[in-house]
Amino acid sequence: MSLPALLLRHQAEFGPVLPVDLSGPAVARLDFTANNPLVAAADLRDTAAFERLVHALLAAQHATVGVGGYLENRVIYRRSPHFGPGAAPQARSLHLGVDVWLPAGAPVLAPLPATIHSLADNANFGDYGPTVILQHALEDTTFYSLYGHLSRREWQHLRPGQRLEKGAAFATVGPYPENGDWPPHLHFQLIADLGSYAGDFPGVAPPAERAAWAARCPDPNLVLQSSWL
After folding, report:
1. Which stretch of DSSP H or E encloses residue 111?
2. Percent of the chain residues past pLDDT 90, beyond the cut
3. Confidence of residue 87 (pLDDT cuts 50, 70, 90)
4. Pick the residue with more confidence: 46 or 66?
5. Which residue from 105, 124, 118, 99 is spatially nearest to 177, judged by alpha carbons?
6. Which residues constitute the domain of residue 211?
7. Which of 84, 87, 92, 175 could, after both became Cys, cross-link 104 (CB 3.0–4.6 A)?
8. For the purposes of burial, counting CB atoms within 10 Å of the CB of 3, is it exposed (0-12), middle (13-18) or buried (19 or more)?
9. Is residue 21 part of a domain?
């Protein structure tokens, strides 16, 4: 059985990743592609200005939490050389997770029982910052979930091999600059095949490789179950 089919089969068992109703009226979908003129024209290298833009996008939709991004071809990665073309054969702009934009300090929860696979502080400008990868098992299938842009405060006390029960608050959303220098948000990503990665995994891919990366990183909304996604 494919991982997406398995996740669909077990959807009723998943808990929230954040203590927020991601289908509620306070949530809005945010567009960070070139189709959004406010984003396309913004100087996103200034993180404080970027945060003001996020707040403006939310306010325009009378929302306080933003969601979106899976397989979105975004312009926002142009702010950092980490995403190429110097760092890769071609620039990476295809987002492989879902971002939830909300204030720093929000607890991050394990949506089902897990073991901490690995940790890293990916401290490049525009990178994940403090990162956790959890390992899960459903039936006979092992898969992983990645949490990026966390606070160092709780993250520094975690250890690989540590067991987490479903619903355990193991981290919080981090502030900038320690979160990779982004406006506060959680990057949540599912990974079917982690390969040799530990504490890190591509969250953005070249658009030409969409099919391969989508197969390796299924839709995070299979777990999040937001009606806005």
Report:
1. none
2. 82
3. very low
4. 66
5. 124
6. 3-216
7. 175
8. buried
9. yes
